[in-house]
């Protein structure tokens, strides 16, 4: 079993060196290997994966399809080292993985989330200050949660209102100009954070303990806030429950930006490259997906296409 853990470290190191973000993959693989240790299984097998799935607990098909893919890639790596490792077939979990339709927050819901985050309990006042600012920044910039937690103090130009994303998807960097109101809120957060914290942090967003904010903790606190404002059902035993996600703040930003283009009479084809760049998407198709995912956007796009076709006929 030591060999599996040693090879996992090497596997993660090499793939991260290629630009992959593997935090979720790492958690999945470590839990799978822990299960193998409990079974005293020396080699990966389809049967072992199925028993792990049975013991793991409830999750939807999409989630298990994702976990299977993660285990399969690692199993392929291990099979190349030792053929006794079996690669579970992709057909083990049938069904095509589909992107979930995003939840689009109303302005009032975002306001409730930020205000509820500002009421979170804290031992020194940093937790509510951090999360209200953190959720608000994602809502007005569309940043990924991984990008927001990775921000350092030096990445946020408080004087010029520019946020530098150093650790974007696949290692890409980009600059995000923010509005005057957002810049002022970030300045206020930085001042109060430094006043409450005993030492000068390198991370821009910190926890009550003065450490960099963790993505898992951010998702947990977001779930708690959503339960308090009625966007998720209240859960026992500190469970997240089901409902709108923090990542849907990014979706909301993208959809509302596009909606404003149509309402202002702008040409989405000309504006799209700006949004693609701002969001840090690898391909424009990833941004155009929002048109199909949001019914109101699809209706506006269809109407615009019909009007354009009618003008061409008239001319």
UniProtKB/TrEMBL annotation:
Any single Pfam family the record assigns to this protein: Phage_integrase
GO biological process: chromosome segregation; DNA integration; DNA recombination
UniProtKB keywords: Chromosome partition, DNA recombination
Ubl conjugation keyword on record: no
Residues of the Tyr recombinase domain: 100-303
Classification via PROSITE patterns: TYR_RECOMBINASE
Lineage top rank: taxon: Bacteria
InterPro entries hit by this protein: DNA_brk_join_enz, Integrase-like_cat_sf, Integrase_catalytic, Tyrosine_recombinase_XerCD
Gene Ontology MF, one: DNA binding
Name recorded for this polypeptide: Tyrosine recombinase XerD
